[in-house]
Design a protein that fits this description.
Its EC number is 2.4.1.-. The protein is α/β, with parallel strands linked by helices and 521 residues long. The protein is built from 26 helices and 6 strands. The chain has 2 domains: 347 residues, no CATH class; 152 residues, no CATH class.
Length: 521
C-alpha cells in the first residue's frame, strides 16, 4: 500500500516540477543563467554576486549540476540535425526535469540508507515524499536544493565509513572529501550541518590515519580544481600559474567575509535569532513541527538538522529556503501519533497543509513570469519591457530577443514614477496600434508587465482619449500571485485578499502615447 502511495507522490512531484512557478530570482540568477551564458549564445545578466570586486559565488558546483546537462542537450540537438541554438525554454524545462530526477533518486535513496529501522523507513520516505518542500523547492534550481542532497549524502558517507569494512571505507573517505569541498563551494553554510555528525569520524580517523590522509588528499585536489575554475571564470584574461598562486579567486572565503559584515546583511534584511525556529521552520513543515517537539526520534539526521539550524540562526539574515537541507532530516526523525483518532487528525492536517502550500508556491507564486518572458520573446516589435511589482525576470529565456529588447525591473516603484518612466519610453500611437495585431509590424514597442492586482493602474487603463498614455492588453496569465503585494495594514485583511487572490494574474500591456506630429503625418 505504501509503495503505491509513494509512486503517486512521485508523479505529484513531477507535475509540480513542470509547473512554471517562480519562487525566488536566485533559482535562475545564481545558477542556470550563469552557465547558459557560457554554453549558449544567450545574452545574460550577471548579478552583483558575480560582478563585484570580490565575487562570492562559485561556478565550480554549477558546471556538473547545470553545465553537463546543457552540454549534453546541445550535443543531442546538433546531432539530430537541428540548426541554431536550442530555445532557452527547452533548456529551462530540461533542468526542471533534471532536478526532479536527482531529487527522486538521490534524496529518496539517501533517506532509505539513513533510516535503519524497517518499520520506520516507509513512514520517513512517505513524509518526505508528501512534503510540498520536496514537490516545489527540491525541483527548482536552487543552490539550497543542491545543498540538501549534498548534506544527505555526506551523512550517508559518514555512516558508511564508520560501519563498513576497511576496503569500502577507503572509497567512502575519498568521496566524502570531494563531496565536502563541493558542498562548501556550493554554499558556505554546508559545514554547519556536519558539526555533530562529523564528531563520529574523529575516533575512526584517529585509529586509521591512512583513511584520513585519503580524505584530505581528495579534498585538497577538489579545492585546487574549484579555485582554478573560479579564477579562470573571474579573470578577464587567460590565466597562468601566477594567477593561481598569487591572485586566486576563493569564493567561499569572499562569501564568508561578506556575510560577517552586519551592514552587508542589512541590505538583504535583518531578522531576529528566532526567525528560523519560530517562523521559517513551521512554514516549511507545518503540522510536523508539533511532532518534532513532542516526540522526536533521536538520530544522526536530527543532530545534523539541529546543528544546522543553530548555526544558521546566528546570522541575522534568515530566509526559509536556507533551511531546506533540514527538511528531509527532520521529517524522517518524527514519530507519528499512536492513537488512531489523533493519527487521522494529524494526517488530515498534513495533507491539507501540503496541498495548500503546494498549490500556492508550486503553481501560483509569481507563476506568470516565465510564460511572460516566453511571450515577450515572440513579439517582433518589443524593444522595451518594464516589469512592475514582480520578481526580476530571467533574461536568458528571451531567446536572443534581449539583443534588441531592454528589460527594466522597477520592482515596487511608486505609481507616479512608473507613469513618468512609461511616458519617456512609450512609442507614438499610430493607426496600426488601433487594429488587431497590426502593431506587431511596428519596429519599436514598449510593454508593461504587471500583476492584475495592481489596482493603482485601473484609472489609466481605460484611457481612449487623445492625451496621456494608452494601455492595450495583449497577453494575460491567470496563474500568478504576487504575495509581496499584501498590504493588510492599509487595506485590511479581506480587501487585500480580494485584490491579490481575486484579481490574480499577470498581464502585458502595449503602451503608447499621443504624439501630435505623428497624427499629422
Amino acid at each position: 500500500m505504501w509503495r503505491r502511495a509513494y509512486l503517486l507522490l512521485v508523479l505529484v512531484r513531477l507535475w509540480f516540477a513542470l509547473s512554471p512557478s517562480y519562487l525566488h530570482p536566485d533559482e535562475n540568477f545564481q545558477g542556470p543563467e550563469v552557465i547558459a551564458g557560457q554554453i549558449f549564445s544567450y545574452p545574460v545578466r550577471l548579478t552583483w554576486e558575480f560582478t563585484s570586486e570580490n565575487p562570492i559565488r562559485s561556478v565550480f558546483p554549477l558546471w556538473p549540476v547545470y553545465g553537463l546537462p546543457m552540454l549534453l542537450l546541445r550535443w543531442l540537438w546538433i546531432g539530430n540535425g537541428n540548426d541554431g541554438e536550442i530555445p532557452p525554454i527547452a533548456v529551462f524545462w530540461t533542468l526542471r526535469v533534471l532536478m526532479f530526477i536527482i531529487s527522486f533518486v538521490l534524496e529518496d535513496w539517501a533517506i532509505h540508507e539513513l533510516v535503519h529501522s524497517p518499520r520506520h523507513r516507509p513512514v520517513a520516505v512517505l513524509l518526505v515524499a508528501s512534503s510540498y518542500v520536496t514537490w516545489v523547492y527540491q525541483t527548482h534550481t536552487f543552490s539550497n536544493s543542491i545543498e540538501t542532497l549534498v548534506v544527505a549524502w555526506s551523512l550517508v558517507l559518514i555512516e558508511r565509513i564508520v560501519a563498513t569494512p576497511q576496503r569500502s571505507s577507503f572509497l567512502a573517505s575519498s568521496i566524502l572529501g570531494a563531496v565536502a569541498v563541493f558542498g562548501v563551494f556550493n554554499r558556505i553554510t554546508f559545514p554547519a550541518f556536519l558539526l555533530i555528525p562529523g564528531l563520529r569520524l574523529i575516533p575512526y580517523f584517529w585509529n586509521r590515519p591512512l583513511h584520513f590522509a585519503l580524505l584530505v588528499s581528495s579534498a585538497l585536489f577538489t579545492t585546487v580544481v574549484a579555485i582554478g575554475l573560479d579564477t579562470a571564470f573571474y579573470t578577464p584574461h587567460s590565466i597562468g600559474w601566477g594567477d593561481l598562486v598569487f591572485r586566486p579567486v576563493i569564493t567561499p572565503l569572499n562569501n564568508l567575509l561578506y556575510n560577517l559584515q552586519p551592514e552587508n546583511l542589512a541590505t538583504h534584511g535583518l531578522h531576529p535569532w528566532y526567525q528560523h525556529l519560530l517562523f521559517n521552520l513551521p512554514q516549511l513543515i507545518g503540522p510536523a513541527a508539533l511532532l518534532l517537539f513532542t516526540q522526536p526520534q533521536l538520530s544522526i539526521r536530527l543532530y545534523s538538522a539541529v546543528s544546522g539550524i543553530f548555526v544558521l540562526s546566528i546570522f541575522q539574515h534568515q530566509e526559509a529556503r536556507f533551511l531546506l537541507p533540514t527538511i528531509p532530516l527532520l521529517l524522517s526523525s518524527v514519530r507519528l501519533p499512536k492513537k488512531q483518532s489523533w493519527l487521522r487528525a494529524w494526517v488530515a492536517a498534513w495533507v491539507i497543509f501540503n496541498v495548500a502550500f503546494g498549490i500556492l508556491m508550486g503553481i501560483y507564486h509569481q507563476g506568470g513570469i516565465i510564460p511572460g518572458q516566453v511571450f515577450l520573446s515572440k513579439q517582433p516589435d518589443a524593444t522595451q519591457a518594464i516589469w512592475w511589482k514582480t520578481y526580476m525576470p530571467p533574461v536568458w529565456l528571451l531567446n536572443g530577443k534581449n539583443e534588441v529588447l531592454t528589460t527594466r525591473d522597477v520592482m515596487g516603484m511608486k505609481g507616479e514614477l512608473l507613469l513618468e518612466e512609461l511616458e519617456k519610453l512609450a512609442t507614438c500611437d499610430t493607426p496600426a496600434d488601433r487594429r488587431s495585431n497590426e502593431f506587431l509590424k511596428e519596429k519599436n514597442g514598449t510593454y508593461l508587465m504587471a500583476p492584475l492586482s495592481a489596482d493603482w493602474l485601473d484609472p489609466y487603463l481605460q484611457n481612449k482619449g487623445l492625451e496621456g498614455l494608452r494601455f492595450r492588453e495583449v497577453w494575460r496569465n491567470r496563474h500568478h500571485l504576487n504575495l509581496d503585494d499584501l498590504d493588510f495594514a492599509e487595506d485590511g485583511v479581506w480587501n487585500t485578499l480580494s485584490r491579490v487572490v481575486g484579481r490574480r494574474g499577470l498581464a502585458a500591456w502595449r503602451v503608447t502615447k499621443s504624439c501630435p506630429g505623428a497624427r499629422r503625418r
